[in-house]
Amino acid sequence: MMIAVITADLIDSTKYDKKTLAFILEELQKEFKVLEQDYPRQVHFDMFRGDSFQGVLKSSEHALRIALRLKATVTKAQLDPMISKAVIPVGDVRIAIGVGTGDFPEAQTHTANGEAYQRSGRLLDGMKSLGRKTQFICGEGSVNDEFDTTFAFLDNVTDRWSVASSEVIYYLLKGFKEQEIADTLERSQAAINLRKKAASWQEIQGLLKRFESVINTLDHE
Q1: Cα–Cα distance between 219 and 155 in angstroms, integer?
Q2: Which of 13, 128, 171, 180 sits CB 3.0–4.6 Å from 51 for a disulfide?
Q3: Are strands 93-101 and 134-137 parallel, antiparallel or unpaired?
Q4: At 90, which helix (H) or strand (E)?
Q5: Packing angle between helix 201-219 and helix 163-173, nearest 10 degrees?
Q6: CA dist., res. 189 & res. 48, Å (int)
Q7: Count of alpha carbons within 13 Å of 105, Cβ hemisphere only?
Q8: Whole-model pTM?
Q9: Among 157, 160, 140, 162, which Cα is nearest to 208's?
């Protein structure tokens, strides 16, 4: 079956203090459970090697949206509530998305195999030397070329996210409206709108739509 595999690791996690690292890993574990509730029987995530994780998706078109939710989960994580949320995030994550054939795991992802696993794992291995944070690979060269370019721009956008804008992006990716986010974060709708614009949500939405359209075409070929 055609699946998507997300393989990722925290960037420079050895530089985090122990409490911060433990907090970010705990936030990721919570998000894995939320994703498995939001996409019942469609996704499965596991941690491995301490600061790395892998997820498998039955519906490949959701891969970028879920990858960005995971990135926002890491970049919005702030252990000290007294620090301004306008600051640059403490944590960041490197994410490789591979699409292809493969098994959906019944237990841990490392027990499964297939093209998507191999592509995602190899892609992540090569990303550190390139300085890339988000990359994509499938079996179609023209699709890979398109998303290699657009994901490079995406890296530039997400590198500018603050903790505050990461929070807003996270809820937008979950489908929340501005007022719902304002109520959740106890901020004004105007403040949420400013954060949304600062995080380039309109452009991210456009990329999500394009990604979903292209992957749906691949899935039905």
Answers
A1: 26
A2: 13
A3: parallel
A4: none
A5: 40
A6: 39
A7: 20
A8: 0.94
A9: 157
Q: What fold is seen in the domain 2-219?
A: Alpha-Beta Plaits (3.30.70)
Quickly tell me which residue has 């499965």 as its tokens. Answer: 44
Encode the chain (221 residues) as per-residue pLDDT tens digits. 789 999 999 999 888 889 999 999 999 999 999 999 999 999 999 998 788 999 999 999 999 999 999 999 999 998 777 677 767 888 999 999 999 999 887 665 556 678 999 999 999 999 988 999 999 999 999 999 999 999 999 999 999 999 999 999 999 999 999 999 999 999 999 999 999 999 999 999 999 999 999 999 876 65
Q: Helix, strand, or coil here: 182?
A: helix
Delimit the domains of the chain by residue range: 2-219
Residues forming a β-bridge with 5: 56, 98
* Residue 101 phi, psi dihedral angles, 5° rounding: -75, 155
Q: How far apart are CA 179 and CA 176, in angstroms?
A: 8
Taking the C-alpha atoms of residue 78 and residue 66, their distance in angstroms, rounded to an integer, is: 20
